[in-house]
Amino acid sequence: MDNSSHDRRTAALAAYEAGQLSEAYRLCLPFAEAGDVEAQSRVGALMLYSFHRYESFEQLNSDTGPIFDETTTSADRNQGVRFLEAASAAGYGIATFNLAGIYVSGYGGGSWEVRKARAAELYTLAYAQGFTSFGSQTQSEGPGQPYLDMMEQYTIDSGLPLPGEDS
What we know:
By secondary structure, this protein is mainly alpha-helical. The chain has helices spanning 3-17, 21-33, 37-48, 57-62, 70-89, 93-104, 112-128, 145-157. It folds into 2 domains: 1-90; 112-167, no CATH class. The mean pLDDT is 85.
């Protein structure tokens, strides 16, 4: 990597860390498309919930950002998943962890039990890939399982449908 490419990558990662969402996306995207797994992970995470369409978290949280339809958010989510899958396949644990989270929140269709099993597999893989930042939730019955159980129990106790399931 030449110095200018290194400088652009450094700027991209700094924008991400600073919460400059659309700028981070713009700067990281060429690296993600070129196969940089860290950039793929970051671009994928931004795209999952269309965060890359906002200037900052402040704009996102203030409800002053762009308005887009379900077709746009679905396309963003699907592209984000593709970036995360590529980074996960390359062994990047945080991408695998984020990929598991999207299944927990309803991505992929199927029943809660099917998605929960897929998420547990991905949490196990993320742990094996070195992503151990999930603390106590990566222990006992298997990586991610305590978190999945806790989320399921909270949802049931609240009288809400499980993620992605009809009410």
